[in-house]
């Protein structure tokens, strides 16, 4: 089948009770849902990274409060310290947002409906086109029709928006983002490539680490783009899919997403 740009309607949610719907699902899917209810293990390395990321802003905040109690500040000094305290509070808020988004991603497995991946990709590309046009770049879409997956459509949409949006936001003016969706055996293959500056080997291995601070990235806090990629990765993996990235310095990037077809 040649790639087309047609759009099919995504089946809407039914009005049946949740228990009745669960009973009519395939045994394998019911098993996946039951497994999803089990507690998720958190990596000790991830907990250590979270603790490290929170330590510095907490220390600075505590120091600022202690100084506020111990000395008389001029208006200029007070403003400077308050701005610094606010900056550190923002860093803590970023950590909290990350943890909340990851918690949401881990509970994504309420995969109760068949969703048209072809429609979703086409619609998201259309919605992101204005963003690409503002940056004077090309958005090329090749999407095979009638490819569906079993997923929580809202969460899958979030994952794809995070990856597509990252590609567009990191691509310079006059650049190109290509989105390709096709079938390969029992999988849907979604490839999102860009003409961004590309990644060094070190940056490539740390791409999904929100606490990694690239030498070329602004210092302090969590990179919202990396946070979005990590959340996308968690969602895709929860749907029994995979995501990997290929890149070379100055040669752009390509995100390869694989999801089992319904």
What topology does this entry show?
Layout: H1 18-23, H2 27-36, H3 44-70, H4 75-106, E1 113-116, H5 117-134, E2 138-143, E3 148-151, H6 153-170, E4 176-184, E5 187-194, H7 201-205, H8 224-238, E6 242-247, E7 253-260
Parallel strand pairs: 2-4
Antiparallel strand pairs: 1-3, 4-5, 5-7, 6-7
Question: Can you describe this structure?
Answer:
By secondary structure, the chain is of the alpha+beta class. It folds into two domains: 44-106, Orthogonal Bundle (Helix Hairpins); 111-260, 2-Layer Sandwich (Heat Shock Protein 90), CATH 3.30.565. The protein is built from eight helices and seven strands, in the order ααααβαββαββααββ. Strands 2-4-5-7-6 form a five-stranded mixed β-sheet, covered by helices on one side. The chain has a two-stranded antiparallel sheet with strand order 1-3. The longest helix has 32 residues, at 75-106.
- Regions with little confidence, pLDDT below 50 for 5+ residues: 1-40
CATH superfamily of the largest domain: Histidine kinase-like ATPase, C-terminal domain
Strand content bin? 15-25%
Mean pLDDT: 75
The total of beta strands comes to 7
* 3D shape: elongated
Strand numbers in spatial order across the main sheet: 2-4-5-7-6
Query: What composes the largest sheet?
Result: 5 strands, mixed
Question: How many individual helices?
Answer: 8
Given this structure, which CATH class of the largest domain is correct?
Answer: Alpha Beta
CATH architecture of the largest domain: 2-Layer Sandwich
| End-to-end gap | 18 Å
**Structural class from helices and strands?**
alpha+beta
How many distinct domains? 2
What quaternary form is this? single chain
Rg of Cα set: 22 Å
H-E order: HHHHEHEEHEEHHEE
CATH topology (fold) name of the largest domain? Heat Shock Protein 90
Helical content, roughly?
40-55%
């Amino acid at each position: 089948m040649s790639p087309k740009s047609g759009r099919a309607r995504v089946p809407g949610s039914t009005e049946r009770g949740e228990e009745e719907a669960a009973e009519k699902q395939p045994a394998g899917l019911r098993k996946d849902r039951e497994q999803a209810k089990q507690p998720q293990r958190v990596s000790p390395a991830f907990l250590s990274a979270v603790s490290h990321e929170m330590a510095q802003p907490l220390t600075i905040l505590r120091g600022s409060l202690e100084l506020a109690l111990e000395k008389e500040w001029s208006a200029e000094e007070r403003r400077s310290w308050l701005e610094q305290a606010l900056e550190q509070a923002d860093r803590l808020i970023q950590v909290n947002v990350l943890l909340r988004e990851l918690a949401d991603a881990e509970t994504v497995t309420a995969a109760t409906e068949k969703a048209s991946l072809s429609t979703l990709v086409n619609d998201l590309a259309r919605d992101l086109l204005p963003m690409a046009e503002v940056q004077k770049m090309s958005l090329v879409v090749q999407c095979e029709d009638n490819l569906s997956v079993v997923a929580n459509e809202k969460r899958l949409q979030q994952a794809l928006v995070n990856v597509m949006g990252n590609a567009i936001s990191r691509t310079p003016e006059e650049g190109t983002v290509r989105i390709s969706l096709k079938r390969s055996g029992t999988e849907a293959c979604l490839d999102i490539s860009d003409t961004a500056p590309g990644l060094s080997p070190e940056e490539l291995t740390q791409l999904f680490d929100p606490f990694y601070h690239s030498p070329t990235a602004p210092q302090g806090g969590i990179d919202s783009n990396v946070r979005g990629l990590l959340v996308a990765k968690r969602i895709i993996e929860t749907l029994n899919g995979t995501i990997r990235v290929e890149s070379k310095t100055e040669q752009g990037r390509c995100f390869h997403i694989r999801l089992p077809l319904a």
